[in-house]
Design a protein that fits this description.
The protein has 6 helices and 2 strands. About 65% of the residues lie in helices and about 5% in strands. The two termini are about 20 Å apart. It is mostly helical and about 110 residues long. It has a domain of about 35 residues.
């Protein structure tokens, strides 16, 4: 993790850092789970798994680059690429209706319980 103010357990959980004894081991399980789910969705839509993986990775790189280049909140960047009645907002709303944000938050909370 970069040199930042002490964030305690919350910072370790959000950043995917597990504390094991004195050593910190970084894991990316949460992001990898999203990648797997997006790949499975691509396959369901008729995209080969390897192609779906490449598309998802490029999409995530683009999202990270956008956030790294600005101080904008992710929601502000989402607003820039959604149009009223468009496919992006329909997809985002379907993800939320299925509990996307809630699932992520609950997963983070569960990972703090020993």
């Amino acid at each position: 993790m970069p040199s930042t103010p002490k964030l305690g357990d919350g910072g370790r959980v959000v950043g995917g850092v597990k504390v094991v004894g004195q050593a910190e081991t970084h894991h990316k399980s949460y992001a990898l789970r999203y990648i797997r789910a997006a790949m499975e969705g691509g396959v369901e839509l008729g995209i080969r798994a390897d192609d779906a993986k490449h598309i998802v990775m490029q999409t995530l790189r683009g999202a990270v680059d956008v956030l790294a280049a600005s101080d904008a909140h992710p929601e502000a960047e989402i607003d820039k690429v959604t149009t009223p009645g468009g496919l992006t907002i329909k997809g985002l709303n379907a993800m939320e209706a299925a509990g996307f944000t809630h699932s992520v938050i609950e997963g983070l909370r569960a990972s703090t319980k020993r």
